[in-house]
Structure formats: C-alpha cells, structure tokens
Design brief:
Layout lengths: L1 H85 L7 H14 L3 E8 L4 E6 L17 H13 L3 E2 L3 E4 L5 E11 L3 E8 H8 L8 E6 L5 E6 L6 E12 L2 E12 L7 H47 L3 E6 L4 E4 L1 H7 L3 H4 L15 H12 L9 E6 L5 E12 L5 E10 L1 H56 L5 H33 L7 E3 L1 H19 L2 E6 L6 E3 L1 H18 L9 E9 L15 E7 L7 H5 L16 H11 L4 E5 L5 E8 L2
Parallel strand pairs: 17-19
Antiparallel strand pairs: 1-2, 1-6, 3-5, 4-5, 5-6, 7-8, 7-10, 9-10, 11-12, 11-15, 13-14, 14-15, 16-18, 19-20, 20-22, 21-22
Helix pairs in contact: 1-5, 9-10, 9-11, 10-11, 11-12, 12-14
Bound molecules: adenosine-5'-diphosphate.
Adenosine-5'-diphosphate binds next to helix 12 and helix 14.
C-alpha cells in the first residue's frame, strides 16, 4: 500500500512546503500593508484636521470682526442722530442752524447734506457737504421727495429716527452715489434729514483696520452689492466671507466682509507643518523598516538554506563526527557516529571523559592521557591516530581518529572536533593479504624443498655408503684372525671416527633442510651475516656440486649483525644463489663461479661512498657468470609466476623483493663483468 504512495508524497511534500512559505510571506505582507494604510489614513486625517482648524479659526475671526463692525456702525449712527438733534438745541433760527450744520458737515464726511424741514416736510434750511460737489438739485428736494417722505413717515409713526432704503443718485458722467436718508423728528413738529453716502459710512464709521487686506461692502438682503471699500481680491487666494444684517428702523442693510488668505492651505500654520514633517519622518521610518525586514528575511532564508545544507551533509557522510567542549563533554554527534558505536545521540550527549560509554574500560587510562595532553594545548597529529572504540554490545573495533580544534567566529577555541573512521574492514583485508602472502611464501619454500629432495637423496647416498662400508670394514676387522691387537684397535677406532664424521655430515644435511622448512615465528632478531650465509651454504653447495659450480665467499671483517627475519632472508639468499647457478647451467666453455659477498653499504639504496648513514646497512651480493638477463626478461623479472625455466614457478624473485622491502632494504641487479648478473640487497644493521 505504502510503496506507490511514497513517490507521490515525495513529490507533494516540497510543493506543500513552498505553499506554506508563500502563505506566511503573504500574511506578513498583509500586515505591512495594513500598517502602511493605517499610518497613511492617520496622516491624511491629521493634515485635514489641521487645515480645517485653521479655516475655522480664520472664519471665526472674520465673523467676530464683522459683528464688531456692525455694532460700530450702529453706535456711529446713533451718535450722529444725537449730534443732529443737538444742532437745534437752544432754539435757533435758520441762519444759526445752517452755520451749525455747515460745521457738522466738515466733521462728518459721511453726510452729503443736512436739511431742516417743517412738519409738512417743506425745507426750512439745507446745507451741502463741503467735500463734494452738490449732487442734489434743490428742486428735487421738495416735500414730495419719495425717500425722505418714506423715512419721515416711518419716523413719525415710530416716534424715533428712521431711515430710507438706499437709493442711487446719479451724478455727472454716468457715475452716481448710493444714498440713504435718515429722518429725525424734532420737538415742535419738524424733521432733520441727513443724506448718508453709503460708501462714506464704511470709510468713516468703521475702523480703518477692517478694510485692510479685505473687502467691506454693503449689500441688499438678496446679496446685491451696493458699495464696497478695501483691497480687491488677489489671484491665488481663498475667500472667507462673513455677513451680518444691520436692521435699521425703516431700512435693512447687509454688511459683508470678504477676507482672503493665501491658497493652497496645505501648510497653513506651524502645527500643520510640524505634523507633516513628523508624518514624512514616520513614512520614511516605515520604508526603512520594511527594507530592513526584507533584508533580514533574505538573510534568514540564506541562513536556513546553509543550515539545511550543512545538516544534510553531516547526516549523509559516513565518517563519524563528534564535537567536544573544552571540558571534554560531547556537544554534538552525527548519525554516522551513533551508528558506528550503537548509542543514540541522547545517550552520548553531555557525557564527559569519565563516563564516555564507547570507551573500553581497559583503555580508559590511555584516553585520559590523551585528553590531558589536549587540554595542555598539545596539537593532535595531522595524520590522525588509531584507537579502539566499544559498541553498545561490548564488541571492540579499531578506529582512525582525526582531531582538530574548534575555532569560533571570534577566533577563540571552544572545543575539539574529531572525525572517526571505522577501520575494522580495512584491518580484515590487511590480515587476509598477510595470511595469503605467508601461505605463498610457505608454498614457495616447499617447492624449493621438493627440488632439494632429489639432491638430498643423491648427496646422502655418499655418506651413507661410506658409513656402510666403514661399518662392514670394522666388522671385518673385528672378526679377522691373525691381526695384531693394537693395529686392529687403531684401525677400528679410525673407522668408527669416520662413521661418526659421515653420520654427522648426513645429519647436518638433513638438519639444514629441516631448519629451512620448519616454520618459525616471524620475529626479527639480530643475526650475524656469517650465520645467515652459513645456514644456506650446505644447501647451496649441494646444488653447486651437481652443476659443477665453484662457490667463492667474501665476507668483510668485523661485520655488525643485521636485524631480520632469519628464515626469510635465508630463503632470499638461497633463491638468488640458485638462480645464479641455474643461469650458469648452460653448455659451453668457461668457468662456473658463484661469488657471495657481504659488505657495509652506504645506505639502504646501496650506493657506494660513506654517508652519515653508512654504518647502518649491509649489502649482500650474489654474482654469477651466467647467461645474463635480456631486455624482455628484465621487463617482467619481478612479475609473479614469470619464469623461463620449464620447472620454474616464477615466484622466487618477487618474494625476494617483498621480503627485502619488508625489512626496509632494496633489491636490485646489474650486469656482471665479464658476463653474468649481480643481484644485491641491503639489510639494516642492529
Ligand atoms: P624461477 O627461479 O622459479 O624461474 P625466479 O622469480 O627466481 O623464478 O626467476 C625468474 C626468472 O628470472 C628466471 O626464470 C630467469 O629467467 C631469470 N633469472 C633470475 N635470476 C637470474 C640470473 N642470475 N641470471 C639470469 N637470469 C635470471
């Protein structure tokens, strides 16, 4: 069931992981978006509120100014009415009044003309403003003059001063004035009438500040502008308007004030500017924060990737990895290490030198010594060292350990890292090859023995035959009659000595073969070179006699002992001697001499001349006068199983080289003068 599901899961899992990542990234972006929108909304609101506050402020100032202006107007008009009344005080005649009226007109530029009329509105006296050309024709100002009539009718009805609605009075050249009359009833039945110029009311009765930078106007109730003073509107400004009704008896006027402030009103005052600056700073911080977060996310992603890669690497290597702190406590192990020793990571973590579970108890002291050396600051060998670990089941296995100090980012050491390799398999292979090598050597030795056996039988026949003849001769002598006793005895004694000699010789021959074949412990020992030569000599002579070869020995005096495995080196000597003699076993004239030489060598390489190493090596050489070694033979000389002889095995030289090299020496050969070959090998001295 699970088998086909596995690939699908393997395909889907990364897709799901990507989806999850995308979703979380989107959620994070949403949050950022929301935050940005909120901040934006806040900023817009604050700026808008600040602007609105400014507008309201301006508007309310304008409203207050307008209200003040209206009250100023009312007060001014009230005062003017009283001034008018005062002009008649104390019972004056027409002339006196006109004088007074003229004086009043000089003080009040808003008046155009003052009239004193009787109860039937007939003018008694009238004076025009000295500041203007006369604008009213006397004929027009009769009792029937409609505005005056209307004002005075109201005044009469109300018993208080009353005003006429404003009206336009044309002056010359198409210009005119907006005029408004006020009719003040006086004691004794009559009226004082004053004609106001609306424009001058604005100029005279209002504070001059009001018309500075703004326009002040009278309008009708429907908004029609009658007169206006002040600065005209500038381009690029925003208008603020305030208007207020002036309810006069008999007439209604509207005062309108238009003020302008520069537009756009985006930075109307310090507050808004400050808020905007803070907003910009806030947005910048937000942008920086977003960028920082993005960078951080990218770094986090990279870090996660690197970590995942490292983890995968540590989990997949077959080398056991282990980290320890400076106190020797294990801080990390990888799966390969756990598998190697059979303990779980939890079991290993935190264990220190005294209780590491994979240390064989019998070797604990060695580990502690190593740990002490480490703590003392000793550097471990680069090529690593061998040790033994114990599995959970108690079995031991060899390991190769490489150690290195753990250096942190600040450059200080925090512990030790070690890589361990299980070398038990390697050991097994080595053991196998060693065993097979030994077997090969043994069989080569046996082959030699087989070859020797025929020689041996031939050789033993002589001493044995001699023994037999001496023995029978002795018997004969003992049994012979007529012989003198003394002479008999001497002869028997001689015969028996010969028997002993021959038996000894036969025994020696057999012993030499026995010694050679017997498998001895492979131990290195210090052996005198003479002893080595003498051990093989009986066997060499055996063959030499058969082939008619003369053996020459040349051993330097007082040679030091060599350190070697006796059996193997003897076999090397024997092989080389045998090869040399066989090479001379060709029909033809010429001497057959085999020269065995032992001398001091300069070095393992055997080069002549005294170096500092001169005493430490001996050189053995075997020289023959044989056929020599041709190029084709030379090319394959040391190849196992290469032979030119019908009964050869081809193992001799390859084994010789192995043995010599195992002892640290070298085996080489060169042509011999006048003919033949010299084989040399070196061995270290004791
Ligand atoms: P084997 O003696 O069984 O043939 P070796 O490995 O000892 O095997 O020798 C391999 C071959 O090297 C020999 O067959 C011979 O041809 C050649 N050889 C060895 N020693 C000599 C020598 N001293 N002179 C000439 N040829 C030699």
């Amino acid at each position: 069931m699970s088998a086909p599901a596995l690939p699908v899961a393997r395909v889907l899992r990364p897709a799901f992981a990507r989806l999850r990542l995308l979703r979380s990234a989107w959620r994070r972006w949403q949050l950022w978006l929301l935050l940005a929108m909120l901040v934006l909304a806040l900023l817009v609101t604050v700026v808008w509120l600040a602007g609105r506050h400014e507008v309201e402020q301006t508007q309310s100032v304008l409203d207050r100014d307008t209200a003040d202006a209206v009250s100023d107007l009312r007060d001014g008009m009230q005062r003017n009415v009283q001034t008018l009344r005062a002009s008649l005080a104390g019972g004056v005649d027409r002339e006196q009044w006109e004088n007074r009226a003229a004086a009043l007109l000089r003080d009040h530029r808003e008046w155009l003309r003052l009239e004193w009329r009787d109860a039937a509105l007939k003018p008694i006296g009238m004076v025009d403003s000295p500041y203007r050309r006369r604008i009213f024709e006397p004929d027009d100002r009769g009792p029937g003059q409609p505005d005056v009539e209307q004002a005075c009718a109201s005044a009469r009805k109300l018993g208080t001063p009353a005003y006429s609605p404003s009206h336009y009075v044309p002056v010359i050249q198409g210009t005119g004035l907006e005029v408004m009359e006020v009719c003040v009833p006086v004691e004794g039945g009559g009226y004082l009438v004053a004609a106001y110029s609306l424009r001058d009311i604005l100029g005279e009765l209002l504070a001059p500040m009001l018309s500075r930078g703004q326009e002040v106007a009278f309008t009708e109730a429907d908004g029609t502008r009658l007169v206006a003073i002040g600065a005209p509107r500038r381009i690029g400004t925003r208008v603020f308007s305030a208007q207020q009704l002036i309810d006069l008896p008999g007439a209604t006027l509207m005062l309108r004030v238009d003020g302008w402030r520069a537009v756009p009103d985006l930075f109307p005052n310090m507050l808004t500017a400050l808020v905007t600056a803070i907003s910009i700073a806030l947005v910048s911080v937000l942008v920086l924060l977003a960028r920082d977060t993005r960078r951080r996310q990218r770094a986090e992603g990279d870090l996660a990737d690197a970590l995942a890669f490292r983890k995968a690497m540590e989990d997949s290597v077959i080398t056991g990895l282990r980290a320890r702190d400076l106190q020797g406590r294990i801080t990390y192990v990888n799966p390969a290490f756990c598998e190697m020793v059979g303990f779980s990571a939890e079991e290993l973590m935190g264990s220190s030198d005294v209780d590491v579970p994979y240390w064989p108890t019998e070797l604990a002291h060695e580990y502690q010594r190593r740990q002490a050396a480490r703590l003392a600051g000793g550097t471990p060998p680069r090529e690593g060292f061998e040790s033994v670990f114990m599995r959970k089941d108690g079995s031991r296995f060899p390991v190769l350990i490489f150690e290195a100090p753990l250096i942190n980012a600040l450059g200080s050491q925090t512990g030790w890292m070690s890589a361990s390799i299980d070398i038990s398999e390697q050991r097994r292979v080595e053991e196998l090859s060693r065993a097979s090598q030994e077997r090969l050597q043994a069989s080569a030795r046996l082959a030699t023995v087989g070859e020797m056996a025929s020689l041996l039988s031939h050789e033993l026949t002589q001493p044995l035959a001699a023994i037999a003849s001496y023995a029978s001769g002795s018997l004969n002598l003992l049994h012979a009659e007529g012989a003198t006793r003394a002479r008999e005895h001497e002869e028997v004694a001689m015969a028996v000595r010969r028997i002993a000699e021959q038996a000894d010789r036969a025994g020696q021959v057999i012993r030499s073969v026995h010694d050679f074949v017997r498998r001895r412990d492979r131990t290195r020992e210090a052996v005198a070179p003479q002893a080595l030569v003498e051990a093989v000599l009986p066997l060499v002579r055996l063959q030499a006699r058969k082939l008619g070869v003369r053996i020459e020995l040349a051993l330097e005096d007082a040679l030091p002992a060599v350190v070697c495995d006796r059996t193997l080196v003897e076999q090397v000597l024997l092989n080389l001697a045998r090869n040399g003699m066989q090479a001379m076993d060709t029909p033809g004239p010429g001497e057959r001499v085999l020269r065995l030489r032992v001398a001091r060598a300069a070095s393992a390489g055997g080069a002549a001349g005294g170096g500092p190493d001169a005493r430490r090596w001996l050189e053995f050489s075997v020289a023959d006068l044989g056929c020599g070694i041709s190029e084709e033979v030379a090319a394959r000389l040391f190849t196992p199983f290469f032979t030119t002889r019908a009964d050869g095995m081809g193992l001799g030289l390859s084994l010789c080289r192995t043995v010599v090299e195992q002892h640290g020496g070298v085996l080489m050969y060169e042509p011999h003068r006048p003919r033949g070959t010299v084989f040399r090998f070196t061995l270290p001295t004791a």
